[in-house]
Amino acid sequence: MTNLYLDIPVFDDFAKVLDASIYHELPDDWWVGTSDIVGSTKAVAAGRFKDVNMVGASVICAVSNALGHSDYPFMFGGDGASFACPPDHIDAVRDAMAATAIWATETLQLDLRVGLTQISEIRASGRSVRVARYAVSHPVSYAMFNGRGMRWAEDQMRAGHNVIPPAAPGTRPDLTGLSCRWSPIKAEGTDQILSIIVQPDDDRDKFNAVVSGLFEILDDSPRKSSPVPEDGPDFAFPPPGLKLEARATQHKEGGYVKAWFKAFYIAFIALILMKTGWKLGEFDPKRYRDYTGYNTDFRKFGDGLWMTVNCTAARGAKIDEYLKAAEERGDIHFGTHHQRTAIMTCIVPSITNDAHFHFLDGGEGGYTAASSVYKAKMARTQAAS
């Protein structure tokens, strides 16, 4: 069967996310998957940043494995993820999501809410799901979403519609490839990591103008304000996510202890290769680190703009002032969060293939904290109206 998603041409200039002509409608019989962690704000406040990100990425990993790593459009959102997929494997996708929900509850005590909505239902609401493919490297592109349909599906899930119940206790998803072995990325000197969420109001042209101005502010700094160092992130040992990785694979490895030792051994070998630059078979540590930088999703578009960027304190203040003025004019809604670090959660189907995926979030609140700011302002606005 032809992969409709791969038929969409890629683009490599991120500013084009505002160009409606690059987006392509998905068919009515496709499905939209949504997920989020209930109570993620409290979990983040308790310092469980890694746990929240791991569960958010786990949905993408479980669905990828259920689809046999066939390319499909998805977006990581910090405390959850959203995606679209064709109907031919929807039962396997539904089972993977249900299994991930019970895994999150039983192993990490996080309440992962998951849902599936058919695009025909979204279109009946007056919205659509339109997708573009932003190429961050030759082998990897990330989906950008437009049409307000993904956001509507998420809102429906949060309201209790189209929710998938968790699988039976003890059911586990296939989370092969899910890892988090990189060190937190620290901002240098007085720099900061800024999490940004910008959502449109009613006038899309005004939103586009504001976002274009934001790009101009950010693109004037090295590597378009990417937090990832030019030579890639540092490799942590022991990895901060070692326990999480073991919990994700313990059912396949014969228990937590075996899974922990396997993850530890792999991390130790990787540490030696990363420090020495030695190659092992087809694995080239320098190439892997380079592509980790290329393949990081530090900016994305999903019915609004999501960014995790590095900036000076002065630039961060300028961005806040710029977005606040735009919000007061009624052009946008936004939330930001300032922190000192960024963290990375990864899906690596094969260490010898350049098609590995790296999801970036702020290391001390990130998108969850920025979203809380945005939602609090929206609640105040609605209460006043």
Query: What class would the helix/strand composition place it in?
Result: alpha+beta
Summarize the main sheet: 4 strands, mixed
Q: Number of helix segments? A: 11
**How many DSSP E strands?**
16
> What is the overall pLDDT average?
93
Supply Rg: 20 Å
For the record, the count of structural domains works out to 1
Helix content: 25-40%
Q: Any idea what the shape is?
A: globular
SSE succession:
EEEHHEEHEHEEHEEEHHHHEEHEEEH
CA-to-CA gap between the ends? Answer: 51 Å
Beta percentage is 15-25%
The parts where pLDDT drops under 50 for at least 5 residues are none
Task: Please summarize what this structure is.
This protein is an alpha+beta fold and 385 residues long. The protein has helices spanning 40-45, 49-66, 90-108, 119-124, 149-158, 204-218, 242-253, 256-276, 285-294, 313-328, 366-384; strands at residues 10-11, 24-25, 31-38, 74-76, 81-85, 111-118, 130-135, 141-146, 178-179, 185-186, 192-200, 299-301, 305-311, 332-339, 341-347, 357-362.
